[in-house]
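Section 5.1 Outputs to date
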Amino acid sequence: MTDSPEITFSLFVLSLSASAEIHLGQLPVPGTDKPAKVNLVEAGHLIAVIAMLKEKTEGNLEESEERLIEAVLYDLRLRYVEVAAAAKQAAQP
């Protein structure tokens, strides 16, 4: 495991964020160059997990970690709304 990066809170949050972006169709599935099929349920679940981490770690994070988790949540929530609206629009006849 010497080649693996050190596991940090920031890396963990970014990993969850990347998984959410995959489910939002924003990033390709690992090992491919194609975006995943949009899965709003899974993306929403991952956003909720990150929000729960923010709540549970409040007052215990370094300033940079606090800024990171706030920025990640803002960005993911915005993308979620955009993708959900596009999916709703596409589903209408």
